[in-house]
Specification:
Distance between the termini: 52 Å
Number of strands: 0
Number of helices: 4
Shape: elongated
Structural class: mainly alpha
Radius of gyration: 19 Å
């Protein structure tokens, strides 16, 4: 038995497993953030959103586009290649949606989002 080949094979399997786990966790996080953003906005009258968070008009299309970009990342998650660059690209998406969520949550601190379920 070629020990080096065995080690390499197991190492590649471990990297693949960790990569898929990262993608699954990232998918979950993006769903929660997008759901929380929509919940906050839907609980608020449009005129109040405009007044308290005027940037939302610019961010809303980006959030919709964000969903499409996440879907594209998901399509490619089981395809080989440079896993590190894929993780970095997906991490940038995560940073983007988390920042949108933080901004919106700060603009509407009176709306609690801790009871949101992803099943809803």
């Amino acid at each position: 038995m070629d020990v080096d080949a065995y080690i390499d094979s197991n190492f590649q399997d471990a990297i693949s497993h960790e990569y898929r786990a990262f993608c699954d966790t990232a998918d979950w996080l993006t769903i929660i953030c997008r759901k929380a953003i929509r919940y906050i906005i839907n609980q608020t009258d449009a005129s109040v959103v405009k007044e308290q968070y005027p940037k939302f008009a610019d961010i809303d299309p980006k959030i919709i586009d964000f969903s499409l970009r996440v879907a594209k990342e998901r399509e490619n998650k089981d395809i080989g290649g440079d896993v590190i660059s894929k993780v970095k690209r997906y991490s940038k998406l995560l940073d983007e949606i988390i920042n949108y969520y933080k901004e919106i949550a700060r603009a509407f601190p009176h709306i609690p989002v801790n009871d949101i379920s992803i099943a809803d």
